[in-house]
Fold this protein.
Amino acid sequence: MIVNTIESVKDSIPISKALKIFNISRSTFKNYKAIVIHKCNASYFKWCVKRFSNQLLPTEVETIKQYMTNEDYKFWSKSSIYLKAIRDEKLQCCLSTFYKYCRLLGFNNRPRKRKADDYDPVKTSRPNELWCADVTIFKTTDTIKHHIHFLIDHFSKYIIGYKICSSSSSIAIKELLDNAYQLHKPNKLQFLTDGGSENVNTTVSNFINSPEIPIEHIIAQKDVVFSNSMIEALNKEIKHQFLFPKTIDNENQFREILEQSVEVYNNIRPQMNLGGNTPIETFNGMTIDISKYTQNFNEHKALRRQLNKQNICKVCL
């Protein structure tokens, strides 16, 4: 549109003035014009490979399409799909480039809610420092409500355990804590929940306050100013990315699908805020460092430029 507009008025309005209206430089306009006029067959989007040698190779664009249309990743976030592709060594480009080509291919971003300016969540520095628990409700198509009790490690986002009950249950919370504590034996542990009756009761407090269990129970927005946002975000992810997209008719089917979902969440789907790790990797001590997955990007970028320049079509000559 910009190229056609400027070209149509260039006899009466100098190009330099027209460019100021669109707030673009002459070099940018030349690039736009080259894209419009020269259709290069060596490029997926018909961009001149000589002028735009940094563009992804057609095979790389096809790889992005394959990952974005894969049914297994259909409801994952774009960043997780990107990380899966680079961890599989099928793609080597930065995240912003991946987002750019997703837009060009028609995979639009989902709207995101902006965080409040005063948002100040709790921070942790290692696994087994703080565990969080919460209950969320999922209704199957037979109209039965199922209460999912989750226990997660705050630092790694790893789901340590979960239980499905017909209602919110203090016994379920206590059993999750007990099983996790016996398995992982943290030296000093904080336990963060909201003030719900399933969390604040004699069943949970008697277990936590026993002499041999060094656990400090923290009530969000009562004992501390921050909320239990980490596990609330997990509830949303599990339901929107794994459960809601499926038709789940009854409890047996629900239990099976939730088990599969937790397996994918913990062990398969990488997360950008974990540096490209999965939750189980971070929980087991792997450092949060995205560079271990991106260290060969510069070499591959140089190779991409070389291949693009070698693959010049007749129009580019």
In short: The mean pLDDT is 89. The chain has two domains: 2-104, 130-249. Residues 117 and 226 are 14 Å apart (CA to CA).
